[in-house]
Specification:
The chain has about 550 residues and is of the alpha/beta class. It is built from 19 helices and seven strands.
């Protein structure tokens, strides 16, 4: 066994080892989200493999172009130099790794780590790299075998190209046709079963105006797990009055689950009918909420709004998936937008037909994938003659069209992590510190607020980071981003991809976990609730400050 590993080690490309070692070292630097030693080892192994692949390609390219081969002496010198230089770099970076991780952890209020556990990281990285290497060599074996057989009948260069295509097809068939599809079926089944679970802490409501009650057009069982939670867990009139000191109404929450109707259009019509039944259009504020992939709605977003308006709020949401947001985005990217567009169209038509002085103010809201789909649900040109009042989109994914356009067209000198868009009369950005009143022109009739944290990789993942430094890394850093973060080709892309998977593991107020207090400032700027002075707002924030992190964050 030792001899086998020794032979594998001797067969490695020295250029690949050198570049892989540099990538390994760069992977130890901080990104947006803290990493455990286990995930750091996986990331470092993938980074080493990526660097090694680049080195192998450069070596192949050298010989393909007909350049002179290296002598045996040069090969040995290169190998030893790469080993010595790479070892020194790795040792230096491992020595500093814990300090780099603490540069992320400490600003987030996490306990600092005393060691980066370099031995464990190195062993895990080696295991990951050799696993990837074996897969790559299996690919090479399939290619070589196919090419050798085809050369009997066709020219060698054509055989090589066809062999690459054949090997790629074989591997893609295994991954997509077996592993990927089996995983999707398992995920879909498990999420459907989870969604169907009845939770003992929630029971069908008795009040007729509640969705899921005996008088409701939507059955309690059809709401799904997330729908039942949304309908049953909001604050009541007594809860709101206890904080505000004023009389309050019971908020209205309408939710339509996937099982409530067979199509997007049917679910949208059902939602509208339920809104009319419960008198939602008689409230002062109506919010169209787009859930995350699983159908979850963040209570940190909706609870504060109901407090701010003394319960005189109606909200409605339609479920479009059982899957977590990243799976829903991968598998059915247009499905959520279609569902949200159907809901917006149905509600907006009814709302716009009402007399202006007899209808509620209409707002949109979405978190994460919900923000993306909410943005895609409306074409501003279609409503410019009769605009709704505004939208609050939090943690928008990096592919959100309106967010991308505004960041690209931001005022010169404003950072990409907190852009200023034109005069601020239509669109503003904010984060943990309230920046919504920073010298902007007065709000216009339509208000759009993006709530985003600079440490949120869902928002600041950059597909081009593989070859280009993201704009948000240039210039001054945000308070919740490490000053030690640096861009490295390829490696930064891998770091950000891992950060996305870990985005909801941060403390509240960082990463992709948005705090009640920050929603309060955003809703105040958007909806201008009456009767709240500075002391009242501070008391409301204190009320939410000690709330535990909401469950099932997506």
């Amino acid at each position: 066994m030792i001899q086998r590993f020794w032979r594998i080690g001797r067969s490695l490309c020295s250029v690949g080892v050198l570049i892989g070692t540099l990538f390994f070292a760069a992977s130890l630097t901080p990104s947006l989200v803290p990493r455990s030693f286990l995930l750091q080892g996986v990331l470092s192994g993938c980074s080493f493999a990526a660097g090694y692949a680049i080195g192998v390609f450069l070596r192949w390219l050298w010989f393909y172009m007909g350049l002179p081969p290296f002598s045996a002496r040069t090969e040995r010198l290169t190998t030893w130099s790469a080993a010595l230089f790479g070892g020194a770099v790795v040792a230096s970076f491992l020595w500093t790794a814990s300090e780099w991780q603490n540069s992320i952890r400490v600003p987030m209020g996490l306990d600092p780590v005393e060691t980066a556990r370099p031995l464990e990281v190195g062993l895990i990285a080696a295991a990951v790299f050799f696993a990837i290497l074996m897969v790559a060599r299996l690919f090479t074996l399939v290619h070589a075998t196919s090419s050798r057989r085809m050369k009997r009948f066709i020219p060698p260069r054509i055989a090589n190209v066809l062999a690459v295509l054949l090997a790629g097809l074989v591997f893609w068939s295994v991954v997509d046709g077996v592993l990927f599809r089996f995983g999707l079926r398992a995920a879909d089944t498990s999420f459907r079963q989870l969604d169907a679970l009845m939770q003992s802490e929630f029971s069908p409501p008795g009040a007729a105006f509640k969705t899921g009650s005996a008088a409701s057009l939507i059955g309690w069982d059809d709401l799904g797990r997330m729908g039942r939670r949304f309908v049953a867990s909001g604050p009541g009139a007594a809860d709101i009055a206890a904080v505000s000191g004023r009389a309050a109404r019971e908020p209205i929450r309408v939710y339509v689950g996937l099982n409530s109707a067979p199509t997007h259009a049917a679910r949208a019509r059902l939602a509208l009918a339920e809104l009319i039944r419960v008198g939602a259009f008689e409230r002062s504020v109506l919010v169209l909420v787009t859930p995350t992939g699983t159908g979850w709605i963040d209570p940190a977003a909706m609870d504060p709004l109901e407090y701010l308006h003394d319960g005189d709020v109606a909200s409605v949401a339609v479920q479009y998936s059982y899957l977590t947001s990243w799976l829903a985005l991968l598998i059915e990217p247009g499905y959520g937008a279609d569902a949200t567009r159907a809901l917006f169209t149905a509600v907006y038509r009814h709302w716009s037909d009402l007399p202006q002085d007899e209808r509620p103010r209409l707002y949109l809201h979405g978190l994460s994938l919900g923000a993306l789909n909410s943005d895609l649900s409306v074409d501003l040109f279609d409503i410019v003659g009769e605009p709704f009042q505004g939208a609050l989109w939090s943690g928008p994914p990096f592919s959100t069209p309106t967010w991308n356009a505004a960041v690209a067209d931001r005022q010169p000198g404003s950072p990409a992590w907190l852009p200023r868009f034109r005069d601020g009369s239509v669109m503003r950005f904010t984060n943990q510190q309230n920046h919504l009143d920073d010298g902007f022109a007065p709000w216009g009739p339509l208000r759009i607020v993006f709530l985003q944290y600079a440490s949120d990789p869902v928002t600041f993942f950059e597909p081009t980071a593989v070859y280009r430094e993201p704009a948000w890394m240039r210039g001054a850093r945000a308070p919740d981003v490490s000053d030690a973060l640096r861009w490295t080709p390829v490696v930064t892309q891998l770091q950000l991809a891992l950060d996305m998977a870990l985005a909801t593991t941060t403390p509240t107020g960082f990463g992709h976990v948005y705090a009640h207090e920050d929603y309060i400032d955003a809703w105040i700027s958007l909806t201008e609730p009456q009767g709240w002075d500075g002391n009242d707002i501070a008391r409301l924030k204190a009320h939410f400050a000690d709330r535990p992190r909401p469950p099932d964050a997506d």
